[in-house]
Amino acid sequence: MKLARIKKAVSPLDVLLLLVPVGLLLDHGGADRTLVFFVCALGIVPLAGLIGRATEQLSERAGPGIGGLLNATFGNASELIMAVVALRQGKTAIVQASLTGSIIGNLLFVFGLAALVGGLRREKQALNVTAAGVSSSSLHLAVIGLLIPSVLFSTTDVSHERVTVSLSYAISAVLLAIYLLGLWFSLKTHRHLLE
Question: How far is Cα 131 from Cα 103, in angstroms, rounded to an integer?
Answer without folding.
Answer: 19
